[in-house]
């Protein structure tokens, strides 16, 4: 599995209507591009000096399906829109690490009932 993360810093003149249009375009991609296995995006809520304005996280089976997504005409429409909206875009694509239990005799830590209990 490959996770594709994109963070966007918008130009100062970008308005809410521009972002609404971007969200509509992004929302339609999973229906047009079958290779998308998981897809989520949204606006920054914190607004700190270090914050980007918007982020997208999507998951693909492998590099070939990621490449198909990147080359798909519907994705290219989004890329073109982002080119006019963003002063900076940061991207990382990484291979998902498989989850491993330390020892087969240990209980699965993700299935514990007391994860949020205080000692």
In total, how many beta strands? 4
Q: What is the CATH level 1 assignment?
A: Alpha Beta
Radius of gyration: 18 Å
Shape: globular
N- to C-terminal distance: 36 Å
* CATH fold-level assignment: Alpha-Beta Plaits
Major sheet details: 4 strands, antiparallel
Strand pairing plus helix content: what structural class? alpha+beta
Please tell me the overall pLDDT: 88
Strand content: 25-35%
Number of domains: 1
Q: What portion of residues is helical? A: 25-40%
Please describe what this structure looks like.
By secondary structure, the protein is an alpha+beta fold. The chain has a single domain, classed as Alpha-Beta Plaits. It is built from three helices and four strands. Strands 2-3-1-4 form a four-stranded antiparallel beta sheet. The longest helix has 17 residues, at 16-32. The protein is globular. The termini are far apart. The mean pLDDT is 88. InterPro entries: Dabb, Dimeric_a/b-barrel, HS1/DABB1-like. Pfam families: Dabb.
Name the descriptors.
HS1/DABB1-like; 3 helices; Stress-response A/B barrel domain-containing protein; Dabb; 119 residues; 33% helix; Dimeric_a/b-barrel; single chain; Alpha-Beta Plaits; 27% strand; alpha+beta
Would you summarize the structure shown here?
The chain has helices at 16-32, 63-71, 73-85; strands at residues 2-10, 38-43, 54-60, 86-95.
Topology:
Blueprint: E1 2-10, H1 16-32, E2 38-43, E3 54-60, H2 63-71, H3 73-85, E4 86-95
Antiparallel strand pairs: 1-3, 1-4, 2-3
Helix pairs in contact: 1-3
């Amino acid at each position: 599995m490959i996770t594709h993360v994109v963070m966007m810093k918008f130009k100062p003149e970008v308005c809410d209507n521009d972002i609404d249009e971007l969200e509509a375009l992004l929302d339609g991609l999973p229906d047009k591009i079958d290779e998308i296995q998981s897809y989520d995006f949204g606006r920054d809520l914190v607004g700190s000096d270090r914050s980007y304005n918007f982020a997208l996280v999507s998951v693909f089976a492998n590099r070939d399906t990621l490449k198909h997504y990147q080359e798909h005409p519907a994705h290219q429409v989004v890329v073109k829109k982002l080119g006019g909206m963003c002063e900076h875009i940061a991207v990382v694509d990484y291979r998902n690490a498989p989850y491993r239990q330390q020892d087969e005799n240990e209980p699965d830590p993700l299935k514990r009932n007391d994860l949020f209990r205080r000692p």
